[in-house]
Predict the structure.
Amino acid sequence: MLTSLYSQRALIWAFANRDFATRYRSSVLGWAWSLIQPLATLIVFAAVFSIVFRIQAPPLGSGNGTSYAAFLFTGIVTWNLFSGLLNLSMTQLKSNGELLKKVQFPAWAPILGASIVQLIQVLLEMIVLVAMFLFLRNVGWTWILALPILLGAMLFAQGIGLMLSILNARFGDVQYIVAVVLGALYFLTPVLYPLSLVEGQSEALAWVIKLNPMTWYVEGMHDVMYSLVAPNWLVLLALVGGGFLTFWIGLAVFDRSSEDIGELL
């Protein structure tokens, strides 16, 4: 399957170029919206949770005080990678249904092509995040560990997205169910609050949050980007290995289940 992915790389890039050209085609601001949306969310959430609910972020790894906005945006970037890939992957089969009926090509090609475009958006968000930490003078060698953590999160999301795309093609209610689940999962992931805050108030809820795989990816990013602390190497290996395993399983399930996808669409 991995050999097939490599051999079809030109087709994947063709779908990526198509989606890249059309994502903000009718918009005046174009790709600026890819930054405006997360920054608007950052401003609103930072105001509400730091001023109204008075949530305190942990100390910066550099020792230069704290920054709830930087803590929040680190979590938002990681979550957007996961939720963006998941939602895009899930809907691509239906979006390309007419094409799949007329032309024979691997059904995962448009899914992976759209995912590349989503990764470009996350890259832009990461540039803003790095600039924020540079401004705060919160810099450390642990930043390089953000790459394997984000890679693991990307593979994890893509694997689940591939499996959900098949389910969504067969049962149209799946995308609405996933939207509800993602909404709940967002608040069960330590994006808006530090995990230590929950551990100090409810051990039961803390265990529920720790059972959420995205908690470990978000916490890993908080460690290496915000706290400038290297996570345990076993945890880092689990994040990358778990992501790759999920992607491989998702691709295998998709490959076996998509043979008659043209008829379903």
About this structure: Residues 2-21+30-264 form one domain. Residues 68-95 form the longest helix (28 residues). The mean pLDDT is 87. The chain has one domain: 2-21+30-264.
